[in-house]
Amino acid sequence: MGDAKSHYPYLLNDIVICLDRPGDAFITDVTPINPQNGLTVTNFAAVPRIYMNGGLTTGSGNTIADVTPTPSREVTQACPPDTETGTDGAQYGYTLFVQYIKPDDRSAWDDGIRVAYTSAGHHYTTDLHFQFALCTKGDPSPEVDPDQLCT
Length: 151
What we know:
Blueprint: E1 10-17, E2 25-32, E3 40-48, H1 49-53, H2 64-67, E4 74-75, E5 94-101, E6 108-119, E7 122-134
Antiparallel strand pairs: 1-5, 2-4, 2-6, 3-5, 6-7
């Protein structure tokens, strides 16, 4: 996100999650991997994708409360069958919304998120590797790739 404000909530909203076996899962925590300059996850929620396709949109500055009046951390829907992709498979699973803030005017970023969850009484974590940044326009931080993340 280009020229992000400090102490202002921003949402990452393009992570699709679903179950690869029968049952359910409860997301207990989402933490940044290798956070730089104080990037912090302040909230997270799993929103059924059927709501996303019904016109729900979000952007920078929105909070989880703006996205859904009843945020959940439970995942109960299976991944789509291999035969249903694109818009046919869009009804399956959830979108994981992750709400971030940065503490000051410097760019802040991470190398992905670690999602902790419980399923069938067991505790698990999974790492999702990608770079997310809340950038300050003109910030010379060499670790942030301005061609991909900052404007």
